[in-house]
Write a structure and sequence with these properties.
CATH class: Alpha Beta
Number of strands: 6
Number of helices: 6
Radius of gyration: 23 Å
Shape: extended
Bound molecules: zinc ion
Length: 264
């Protein structure tokens, strides 16, 4: 399948921090509301048309201004990847380029902050086709990602180590804590879990060519056992045929890579 099919349009304001509940766009657009003037008496047709044209230009520039104000404010929010930088100086340019301008570490951070923001298009566009969850059915994929995002609250994220395999493969080990909300009506069932994974990133020549190609997330390294540890909350009950930890192990891609160098 062509990579281009995955390059779907995405806007920074697509679900703008919806999970965090910032009603930013509305409050700014209210300020940009146009105020209509009463037409002056004895106005000629030319004068009326000229006045309308000026009003139209004014209203367009109000909309542009409001939109750029939204962009500026969004860029000044601390980045959801917890780098300590502002979004505009961290994951925003990576999101806007759909990952084309990212190193593996920037891509990992931007994928995490895309999860926090509910930006499923970015997650999809930066997933390599060897990933077990890769599917050309984008609607189903988006629905699955949205279901996952709505069932968790993202708490912490940390990159633990970085290994370079070769020019087209790098690995990053990370850990993240999340509150898992199995049922919104049962807050007593909420668990805090810590996930650890060594992620594989592969670089591929873009179909558009140019440069050294771009990085994609290919999944967890098969030589690293990912962990999913209960930090706080009730232990899941054992059911018939249950493995006990309540979590299905995820299939991992068959990659013949090994980390040859790991640096902190
Ligand atoms: Zn970031």
């Amino acid at each position: 399948m062509r990579r281009n099919a995955l390059i779907v349009a995405v806007s920074v304001l697509h679900a703008p921090f919806g999970a965090l509940g910032f009603p930013m766009q509305q409050s700014i657009l209210h300020r940009g509301k146009a105020i209509r003037a009463t037409p002056p008496a004895g106005e000629s047709r030319e004068e009326r048309l000229r006045r309308r044209e000026l009003a139209r230009q004014d209203s367009n520039s109000d909309a542009d201004k409001a939109s750029s104000e939204v962009g500026t404010l969004v860029a000044q929010i601390p980045c959801a990847c917890r780098s300590g930088n502002y979004y505009g100086a961290c994951c925003q340019p990576v999101h806007e380029s759909l990952g084309k301008i990212a190193t593996p570490e920037q891509l990992l951070r931007a994928r995490y902050s895309a999860y926090v923001q509910g930006n499923t298009d970015f997650v999809i566009a930066t997933t390599h086709e060897t990933h077990p969850e890769f599917t050309p059915d984008l609607d189903a994929w988006r629905a699955e990602l949205t279901g996952f995002i709505r069932s968790v609250e993202f708490l912490t994220f940390e990159i633990v180590s970085h290994g370079v395999v070769n020019a087209t493969m790098e690995m990053l080990t990370w850990k993240a804590q999340m509150k898992v909300l199995p049922d919104l009506l049962s807050p007593e069932k909420v668990q805090t879990k810590e996930f650890t994974e060594r992620s594989v990133f592969v670089r591929e020549e873009d179909s558009e060519g140019g440069g050294d190609g771009r990085w994609f997330y290919a999944g967890g390294d098969e030589d690293f056992e990912p962990t999913n540890v209960l930090v706080k909350g009730p232990k899941p009950k054992r059911g018939p045929g249950d493995r006990g930890n309540g979590d299905k192990p995820k299939a991992r891609p068959k990659l013949k890579a090994r980390t040859v160098a790991a640096r902190k």
